[in-house]
Amino acid sequence: MLAVRVPRKEAEKTRRKLMELGVLARGYAVKREAGFVLFPVTEPVEGFQLIETDFKRVEPRPHSYREVVEVPESLRRLLPGSFDVIGDVAIVEIPEELKGYGRAIGEAILRVHRHIKVVLAKGGNVSGEYRVRKLLHLAGERRTETLHRENGIRLKLDVTRVYFSPRLATERMRIFRKSRPGEVVFDMFAGVGPYSILLAKKVKLVFACDLNPWAVRYLEENVRLNRLNNVVPVLGDVRKVAGKVVADRVIMNLPKFAGRFLREAMLSVRDGGVVHYYGFGPEEDLFSEHEERIRATAEELGFGVEVLERRKVRPYAPRQFNVAIDFRVWK
Ligand SMILES: C[S@@+](CC[C@H](N)C(=O)[O-])C[C@H]1O[C@@H](n2cnc3c(N)ncnc32)[C@H](O)[C@@H]1O
Questions:
Q1: Is 226 a pocket residue for ligand 1 (Cβ < 6 Å)?
Q2: Is 307 found in the same domain as 182?
Q3: Which among 225, 178, 234 is positioned nearest to 203, based on CA atoms?
Q4: Containing structural domain, residue 20
Q5: pTM (predicted TM-score)
Q6: Is the beta carbon of 87 within 6 A of some atom in ligand 1?
């Protein structure tokens, strides 16, 4: 077979060049010998030393678990196209018709995605005050604790005991960009700290509250893990804390019930401070209901509000979106 032969130090540059030219032969292992690297090519390439040699054949790696999973052909079209990855744990939503093939799906995910060590299936909706969901083991190690990396921070958590969504990483970065050094932040529903820890890298002080003792336990561990000394974890109902802190920025990441805590948020933000509110809204009218509630609460308290930004954060359910409203409070 035809090969391009280059000194080892030029190997990476050459590989890129051959890929760019579309002449690198697929399905063969690159060969190394005596300080040189040999690439299999489909045709002669100018400017390189060309030789004839044999290459070992290799199986091309599948890109998706769907290429290797064993399920009846008639059900293949129902295979989930994506899944959440938290640290080295994959969480997949399996449609009813494929429930009997959970293990096969889990094994296929482990085979294709080498960095994943545990595969779990969603066993219900996010529910309760702690906003957690039941998860079922499909394949891999029998553990549910993992270390997740996001936006340059590390977060340890148990996916069965606390709420965490990797899909909010971009939204958290948006808030990080808006925050300023010197600010005091109040993260009302902090969970294991994805907002708090990230913002603490920039601002002066973060009060991080959560009702779930597991969330606060991991939050404390994550503060240590990220070598921070400006996060104050608070275990308990945010109603008891609100009004006792004066923050430049308040984060209300409890979309299901945030409307019930607007009073607490407005009492905790300083005059001219900003509240980041989250909710769920129907596609046809994403923001109105939330904005009416925001204005009504401000009126009751004798405050003024100014909406700064409205955003669709991500799809939540059919025709429903997770939305964000940033507003300033005037006292
Ligand atoms: C949707 S999760 C968000 C967690 C975190 N901010 C994140 O992005 O991963 C909402 C969190 O609010 C907490 N929570 C619910 N009601 C609460 C309350 N009354 N006081 C304090 N925390 C509460 C839950 O335990 C849960 O961890």
A1: no
A2: yes
A3: 178
A4: 2-52
A5: 0.84
A6: no
